[in-house]
Design a protein that fits this description.
The chain has one helix and nine strands. By secondary structure, it is mainly beta. It is globular and about 65 Å long.
Length: 161
């Protein structure tokens, strides 16, 4: 390679690197992520309410409301949550989904009697129209065939909009 070609290539490479460095980084995908300080949105150990008790019963679906809680605005498309299962009565799996859909996949697996076990997840939200609407659901798949209960905690750490 001649010296002029090497110099031309280096000049072109320097210009390309300068242009790439000058372009701001954009989030991948159509939504932007907004972190929030960890906030407990659901705790089934609390008194009965939309995001409180009672405990989740095995092989049943339970819905909750994320939008409007823990700085998650109405219109959010998904949340990042830390899902915790507390003192499950039997082994199984817990799935967290939009309120309108059940995919049958596990978000966290656990054994009977574990004190608390947690896992992080990104969960799409169902659109809500009125304050009574629910936007996220939890299903406990039980391996034993009996129907004990377990407490579930959902701690929000961010949302996509």
């Amino acid at each position: 390679m001649t010296a002029s070609k090497i110099l031309g290539f280096r000049s072109w490479l320097a210009l390309a690197l300068l242009l790439v460095a000058a372009v701001p980084a954009m989030a991948d995908g159509p939504f932007q992520f907004f972190p929030v300080a960890p906030c407990r949105a659901v705790d089934t150990r609390n008194a009965p309410s939309v995001n409180g008790g009672p405990a989740v019963t095995a092989n049943t679906l339970r819905t909750f409301r994320m939008q409007g809680n823990c700085l998650v605005p109405n219109g959010a498309k998904a949340v990042t949550v830390n899902v915790t299962v507390v003192s499950p009565g039997s082994a199984g799996w817990l799935g967290v989904y939009p309120a309108t859909g059940f995919s049958g996949t596990s978000t966290i697996n656990f054994n009977a009697g574990e004190f608390a076990i947690a896992n992080g997840a990104i969960v799409p939200l169902t659109a809500v129209a009125v304050p009574a609407d629910r936007d996220i659901s939890v299903f406990w798949g039980n391996y034993s065939g009996v129907n004990p209960t377990t407490d579930v905690l959902l701690d929000v750490t961010g949302y996509f909009q």
